[in-house]
Amino acid sequence: MASEQQLSAIKGAKVLMVGAGGIGCELLKTLALSGFKDVHIIDMDTIEVSNLNRQFLFRQSHVGQSKAKVARDAVLKFRPNISITPYHANVKDPEFNVDFFKQFNVVLNGLDNLDARRHVNRLCLAAGVPLVESGTTGFLGQVTVHVKGRTECYECQPKPAPKTYPVCTITSTPSKFVHCIVWAKDLLFAKLFGDKNQDNDLNVRASDASSSSQQTEDVFERKNDEDIEQYGRRIFDHVFGYNIELALSNEDTWKNRNRPRPIYSKDVIPAEPVGQNGNQAKNLVAGNPSSISAMASLGLKNPQDLWSLKENSAIFLEALKLFFSKREKEIGNLTFDKDDQLAVEFVTAAANIRASSFGIPLHSLFEAKGIAGNIVHAVATTNAIIAGLIVIEAIKVLQNDVKNYRMTYCLEHPSRKMLLMPVEPFEPNKSCYVCSETPLTLEINTHGSKLKDLVDKIVKAKLGMNLPLIMHGSSLLYEVGDDLEEDEVANYAANLEKVLSELPSPVIGGTILTVEDLQQELKCSINVKHREEFDEEKEPDGMVLSGWTQPVAVEKNGKGSTDNGASTSRLSEATSLVTEDDDDLQIIPTQTGKKRKLSDVSGAASSDVSSFRNEAKIKRKAEAADNNNDVVMLDGGSSENSKKKREQ
């Protein structure tokens, strides 16, 4: 039974929830039943059929509608006297700035990706609002409390990073099905349907190498008046036939490896007269891209069936045909989405054909979707437990009950006879560049790297800034914003293409850069150190950032997902473990009843704690990380130097 003090704190609180998915539905229900009167919810997603088995505020009739708005309506039916304000929007939108966050007493996160989590963490720090973070992966879960100046912020500790593979493994010598998935999704799908100007390692030309012609034909470009069936077979023969034969010509590569076999479309599916199968897609729902399906066109129904090589080839050709005939306006702007049925079918078929060529076992569409979309199947009970723990910690925060704050970990199997392991929060990490403003050090070739490399690989990818501003002394080198004049935009765009040492205010060894994100109200200093050479395998970005919380590499061989919140589905951009509902499990508890410092993590002497930590690590890898496939390809960067290295 809640005390009068607790009830008073609850009724007077204004709460912001970010995420209305697996955890979010349970959390909103629990907040309402606990007596909270004023709740605001931000979620950019719409309801999908796959959500209905665990997000219990939603029904079949709600599919396609806003999660935040439907969740509000569902809860108001049994708690009509409370105020719930929904926002069908991205939490990174400009309207959700520091001033917006300042109106709340506490922020509760139910997100599914690292980028959005970091963004909310920074806004909470800037606004001085406590944050209760959470995540689940199957049977595992956690709740952590982050209060500025009193506990560590969300970014004080390193987060699990995806397993990385050299691009040569993906493009030339795959040995696992996940390699084939990454090739099909991040290379082939992107090349055919994504940004044509993006660097892509599938740019192998089919023209005669001995030709003296200066203009080399791009085989992925559809020729004028080329029949879609002919185009599809030409692409098929190029990537599964010609490219394999080209790879086989390098005998040294295959001395200790199984040789792949080239596959040509005519050997699998004899050519049919043009138009013979042209009416198969007419039964699809007009105007609804998600209803377009190569499986439906070919009469394949069960996604758990293992397709033969012939069926995979048919799906590949049919999916490509449907993209160009039914979704032609989208081509050039598409990125892979696990909820895009046609995209999943295409990637599954392409990965299976490549797997067949390299002697790798084939997978069903259900399995391939899990790998490509990073799906760890959610457990509704875990979400409910975590939601309850979030509310418990939120009540402590509202009462300023600092001594009783706890990070709580939910385990699948008991440890020390406990399934819920409470741990005192860390103190702030003094070396955290986010909450402690510690200067960073960047080693970079200032005579070879462009400002664009710095912005893309460091400022955005590693520091997580959305609207960065970069200054050298009083000189403004780069800025992003809607209020810029045209000449300013053009000037900054020109700067992006300049080598660092050739900028209007040259960046060389010893330069101190100030990098700021006005939306997040985050500022940090970067000390630049010039370095000539980098190890392409170990340092693929061609630059090294020190002083930030470097993600811990986690190898994954299974499934994970992005389901709620501001999600991303491009594996090549993924930076953390993502799960079907909410994630970032980072189980590193130590002794309870003791105020911990960062050094205590490695120095805890308790055998119980050590055994728990080891068990947690094993569980973490076996049940969360190893069941994921957040894969990043190490492509050696995009500079001219790294391109030359790859060509050599």
TrEMBL record:
The keyword GTP-binding does not apply. ATP binds at residues 19-24, 43, 51-54, 67, 112-117. Keywords: ATP-binding, Metal-binding, Nucleotide-binding, Nucleus, Transferase, Ubl conjugation pathway, Zinc. Residues 3-432 form the THIF-type NAD/FAD binding fold domain. Residues 201-224, 554-648 are annotated as: Disordered. Pathway: Protein modification; protein sumoylation. Signal peptide: none annotated. The active site is at residue 168. Pfam families: ThiF, UAE_UbL, UBA_E1_SCCH. Its main location: nucleus. Residues 600-611 have a biased composition (Low complexity). Residues 320-369 form the Ubiquitin-activating enzyme SCCH domain. Heterodimer. This is SUMO-activating enzyme subunit. It comes from Sesamum radiatum (Black benniseed). The lineage of its organism: Eukaryota, Viridiplantae, Streptophyta, Embryophyta, Tracheophyta.
